[in-house]
Structures are given as structure tokens and as C-alpha cells.
What we know:
Layout lengths: L2 H7 L14 H11 L11 E6 L2 H10 L4 H4 L3 E7 L4 H19 L2 H23 L5 H14 L10 H25 L3 E2 L7 H8 L6 E9 L16 H4 L4
Antiparallel strand pairs: 1-2, 2-4, 3-4
Amino acid sequence: MSLQEILEYRRSVRYFDEAKELNTEKVKHCIELATLAPNSSNMQLWEFYHITDPEMLKKMSHACMDQRATETAKQIVVFVTRRDLHRKRSKANLEFEKGNIARNSPPEKQEKRWRDRQLYYNRLIPFMYGRFFGLLGIFRKILTIVISSFRPMTTSLSESDMRVVVHKTCGLAAQTFMIAMAEIGYDTCPLEGFDSRRVKKLLKLPCGAEINMVIPCGIRKGTLGIWGERFRVPFDEVYRMI
């Protein structure tokens, strides 16, 4: 299918054919493709929980209020944000960049680029993602308001702002996953209706992790599970050319 055909094919399917199984390796590959999604500062503050065990699927469905999408799902993928892993991810980026710069940058620019990467991942990223009972976020907000009075700069740096950034990034990965699934004829239904406390407990997640999205997976049964024709507001209501 072309990209347009894939996007037109993808629907939020709320009832799956219980007689049709999914190939676990194909779903896993779609999750792997999701890691190619763009993300802020290449921090990749996400984790993906691929649920295939029947008993765990039942428990997960209960945590999602036993919706038909989870009750009939053959597999479920849970997208999780891990803002608390920012130091680990920064270190991984630096380790990669050291070799990347050596391989792909002109010799005369390598030293400066390496210094820039070290400053960014060793100093700036910890400052942006650091948390200290909310106080560091307030300090960042005040600092950016003052500096932005004199020159343009990013001002969304409070703790709640950074939480939004991480969830937006994870949402891009979730969308990439759903497009990849549609390309092979598998269906999904992104859910925001779930008990995040129970889902975290089931997955044994640490306090710093958050549930971004629960995505039941299966294969549609004809038009069952699809609520008729797709509705979108007129394009000219949302499109602005400047």
C-alpha cells in the first residue's frame, strides 16, 4: 500500500476477530520500527511493553475497564514514558556521538562538535529534565521568562512542560507503530481510557514511569468494531496558509 492507502486503511478498531491470531514477531518488528520515530533531543525516553500472555491480557483488559477492544485483543502494546531515565539516555547519546563525530565530521570540526555534544548532554539536558520537588522547574521557568525578554528561546521548561514533551515524543512512536501495523494488515485502537495506577502495577513500573497509551491489537472482522464512516472536520477549518 502507498502511504495514503495505509493512512486511509488505519482505523481505531474496537472489536477484533477472535478467530484470527497475530504473528508475534511481526508485531515486535512494528514496535522496533516505532523506535525510528522523531523524538526530542534523541533522548528516546520511552519503553514498550508487548503483552502476549493470555492471563496478562485479561488483567490488562480489566485495568482498561474491560472495553471490547481489550477484551478481544490478541496482543496489547503499552507505551510508557521514562523521564526518569534522562541521565542514562544522555550517557548513551554521548557514547554514540563520540564515534559518530569521528566517522562523519570533517577533522577540523570534530573537536568543536564534541565539545558542543558534551555541553548539551552533560549540562543542558540534566538542567532541562532535572527535578527537585518542583523547585527546579519553577527556577527554569523564571529564568527563561527573563532571558526571552531579550532574545528568542525555548520557554516551555517547567516540570509540567517537560512532561508534555516526553509524552508528545512517545505519542509519535505510538503513531509510527500503528502505521506500521496497518501496513501489514493488522489493526489497532489507541486507548486513553485506562486505570494508569493498575496498569503501572501490572507492569511493575517504577514511580518515575508514566503510561502514555495502551494499544490493543488484532484483526478487524469486516466492519465490526469500526463506527461507520470516518468523520473529519472540513479541511479549511483547520488549515491556515501564511
